[in-house]
Batch of 3 targets.
Target 1
Amino acid sequence: MTFKLHDDLIRTCIEIQSFPLCRVLLNNDSNYPWIILVPERSDIKEIHELSAADRSILIEEIAAVSAAISSEFNADKINVGALGNATPQLHIHVIVRFKTDPAGLGPVWNAGAAQPYTAAPLDAMLNRLRRAFAKTAYSTTPRSQRDDPGIR
């Protein structure tokens, strides 16, 4: 079966690039540098459903994104989570947190209204993230080499 990004993720995210396993997305909330990793595997809802090899790749991609955005944004903390209560496709949130961010010490979910990016800040953020990820061991996979036209 061909991989297809869930409609919720298409609606709420902007594609940054692809890593060997995951589609790398930016959550469209300018309150936080908020990355979402989606393993490009069909019909996967849980981490344990991935093969052992894919689980190993996933943790390395989470670590690479975490390190890149922690350094790039001088994060106080990086939050990593795979909830999936509302969106059943396996996706992992990797979120930069600051002591001064809108959610304070609490979780980012329902901490206030999302502030979608406008055009110029979005382009700047995407370029910044692509430069940060280029310093990792992972390279961009051009959209033309993937089955799913995805988002943006």
Target 2
Amino acid sequence: MLVASELNKFSKTPATLRVTIPTQGAQNTYYLAVKPHYTAILLIALTFCHFLATQAFHVVVLYTYDVLGHYSHQRITYGISIPSAVLAIALGFVMLCILIFAMERKLDASMPVVASCSMAISAACSGGDVVMGLRKIRYGRNERTGRMGFLSS
């Protein structure tokens, strides 16, 4: 979703491509999957959800002794903390709802969704003898050929 959203920005405003070795103003920072602030929020939420889940379920070992104080037997059972379990389930549900609402976000209709497919991006960037990685580009119709693709601006 985030990669498609970033690629969709090319249909609105011209920007430089992200390349391995940047020259002449090209960008080199690339988020592999998730931007750092999304990662921090997700990490905090998952840590809290894990903490609540571990607090909700616990093992109880009971050692029983006879009247003389000698060991009789042991019983192993489990305990459940209802408030922690309910909070963990509620937090998981909220996280799922946020994901569903984020997936409902509409992209620009003029831009095809190619995600991170480098073949599709490379084909769209074929600008003849122009090196697209060094210029600001935008997505649109090529006036000369009539094809849709990335154009240098």
Target 3
Amino acid sequence: MPGTPPDSQCRPDLFQHTVKELREGRTQSELSELLSQVVQAVREVGKQGSVTLKINVAPIGRASGQYELRGDVKGDIPQFPAASTIFFGTPQGNLQRNDPNQQTLEFTTIPNNQPTQFKNAQEAN
């Protein structure tokens, strides 16, 4: 707690100990696995990611000294942006891949059965 004096009776490993005990260690395992996934994705994608642990603490009864703790693990794993495709709209409201306003060029193949001789730049001089 902010402003807690240095002589506080809080055990220094309270957080670590509590996380280790949540759901008999499963929360800690989930955190470790998720952290590994985030690190791998950050390396591949080159964007920031995060792992978040939220611990809800609720009293059980009045003044019983018992508390129910629930850990909520979430991750923000960066991803590559989804690929996009460009389409052209027609006057009728349809979509197509070719631009309806652009003329089509007719290409013909010229057969060449002879091997092509390439010259080296030094030979050309």
